[in-house]
TrEMBL record:
<dbReference type="InterPro" id="IPR020843">
    <property type="entry name" value="ER"/>
</dbReference>
<keyword id="KW-0560">Oxidoreductase</keyword>
<dbReference type="GO" id="GO:0008270">
    <property type="term" value="F:zinc ion binding"/>
</dbReference>
<keyword id="KW-0520">NAD</keyword>
<dbReference type="InterPro" id="IPR011032">
    <property type="entry name" value="GroES-like_sf"/>
</dbReference>
<dbReference type="InterPro" id="IPR002328">
    <property type="entry name" value="ADH_Zn_CS"/>
</dbReference>
<dbReference type="Pfam" id="PF08240">
    <property type="entry name" value="ADH_N"/>
</dbReference>
<comment type="similarity">
    <text>Belongs to the zinc-containing alcohol dehydrogenase family.</text>
</comment>
<dbReference type="Pfam" id="PF00107">
    <property type="entry name" value="ADH_zinc_N"/>
</dbReference>
<dbReference type="InterPro" id="IPR013149">
    <property type="entry name" value="ADH-like_C"/>
</dbReference>
<dbReference type="InterPro" id="IPR036291">
    <property type="entry name" value="NAD(P)-bd_dom_sf"/>
</dbReference>
<dbReference type="GO" id="GO:0005737">
    <property type="term" value="C:cytoplasm"/>
</dbReference>
<feature type="domain" description="Enoyl reductase (ER)">
    <location>
        <begin position="13"/>
        <end position="344"/>
    </location>
</feature>
<keyword id="KW-0479">Metal-binding</keyword>
<dbReference type="InterPro" id="IPR013154">
    <property type="entry name" value="ADH-like_N"/>
</dbReference>
<dbReference type="GO" id="GO:0004022">
    <property type="term" value="F:alcohol dehydrogenase (NAD+) activity"/>
</dbReference>
<keyword id="KW-0862">Zinc</keyword>
Length: 348
């Protein structure tokens, strides 16, 4: 039976202390489902939402979170394709209009009326969360709900970015921010897709994880020496075929063009506030460099990203914490101290 009250983490205002308290369990509308969230990932986006450091307003009294995996406990009267008892996930894109040219083309993240979990609508830092039925992710029953939670944003996003990079099997991709949540999954997806990986981040813990646990071929520490020269030296002098920028700092967005191979692609994914991406025009032209953005993924990307996981190809390390300890996890993320992803158990 569904309780009337549940625990949630609520941001009363940007940068104000986050309150862990009891709130009513929401009721699903006709086209919505209610999911008992068992585990939720903590994405750096959640930290941006709490701080309010992006040029996009959040909802007031927000419950954050957008990597929630759990069990469907109620469905609205119009919902036919998903049932009580199914395993399902709430991802960043909670809903979209379905009618605009972007939705019609399967580019629903670009919908101007998109609802964003844990940003413009309440998300997964609570025990029971609402999602539009057409957008919730289908999770196979065999998949562990803790390990799959990070796939619901980080996994989808990096899988899509790797597809957008147009890299082919056997070519080399530089992953910048490789030791973080998105980065650790990016290494695994890249390898599963047949790409060679150069991991870029800092510190011995992340280096060890990238090389030994995740299987990157090279690690370049951005805090040691000349990063452009170091990436070139491990790529036969030519640079990486693609660069996936996942870092939450501006510097790499201004350096990537220098170590991207001619004809290569730079995919911007990380969202450091007030940052600009820049490249010298002359060399961008004569070396035919492509610079583009990539934003989460659509429903098919979601299903494909989950398929890779379900087939056992994605095994990134994660730490399990308690929903009640969200503030502590934000602090660690802010300090760059999380190697891989934190996943929170919502029952404690
Ligand atoms: O759809 C999208 N585009 C999307 C989806 C999800 C998340 C974008 N994001 C954004 C987040 O909002 C955030 O800005 O991607 C960024 C990374 O999210 P994350 O992976 O959840 O953050 P993290 O776990 O803190 O990892 C960031 C890593 O970057 C490294 C850090 O050491 C950390 O491991 N890093 C930094 I900060 N500066 C770096 C640099 N100069 C760097 N790595 C290499 N070079
Ligand atoms: Zn996210």
């Amino acid at each position: 039976s569904i309780p009337r009250e549940q625990y949630a983490q609520i941001y009363k205002d940007n940068n104000h202390p986050i309150e862990y308290k009891k709130v009513p369990v929401p009721k699903p509308g006709p086209d919505e489902v209610l999911i008992n969230i068992k585990y939720t990932g903590v994405c750096h986006t959640d930290l941006h939402a709490w701080k309010g450091d992006w040029p996009l307003r959040t909802k007031q009294n927000l419950i954050g979170g957008h990597e929630g995996a759990g069990v469907v406990v109620a469905v609205g009267e119009l919902v036919e394709e998903i049932k009580v008892g199914d395993h399902a996930g709430i991802k960043w894109l909670n809903g979209s209009c379905g009618h605009c040219e972007f939705c019609m083309a399967g580019d629903e993240p670009l919908c101007e009326k998109a609802l964003l979990s844990g940003y413009t609508v309440d998300g997964t830092f609570q025990q029971y969360a609402i999602g539009k039925a057409v957008h919730v992710a289908r999770i196979p029953k065999e998949a562990p709900l803790d390990a799959i939670a990070p796939i619901l944003c980080a996994g989808i996003t990096v899988y899509k970015a790797l597809k957008e990079s147009n890299v082919r099997a056997g070519q080399t991709v530089a992953i910048v921010g490789a030791g973080g949540g998105l980065g650790s999954l990016a290494i695994q997806y890249a390898k599963a897709m047949g790409f060679r990986v150069i991991a870029i981040d800092t510190g011995s813990e992340k280096q060890e994880m990238c090389l030994k646990t995740l299987g990157a071929e090279e690690f370049v520490d951005f805090a040691k020496g000349d990063i452009v020269a170091n990436v070139k030296s491990v790529t036969g002098g030519l640079g990486a075929h693609a660069v996936i920028l996942l870092a939450v700092s501006e510097k790499p967005f201004q350096q990537a063009a220098e170590y991207c191979r001619s004809r290569g692609t730079i995919v911007c994914v990380g969202l450091p506030p007030k940052a600009r991406v820049s490249a010298e025009v002359f060399s961008t032209v004569i070396r035919m460099i492509t610079i583009k953005g990539s934003y989460v993924g659509n429903r098919l990307d979601t299903q494909e990203a989950i398929d890779f996981f379900a087939r056992g190809l994605i095994k990134a390390p994660f730490k399990v914490g308690k929903l009640s300890e969200l503030t502590k996890v934000f602090q660690l993320l802010e300090e760059g101290k999380v190697a891989g992803r934190y996943v929170l158990d919502t029952s404690v």
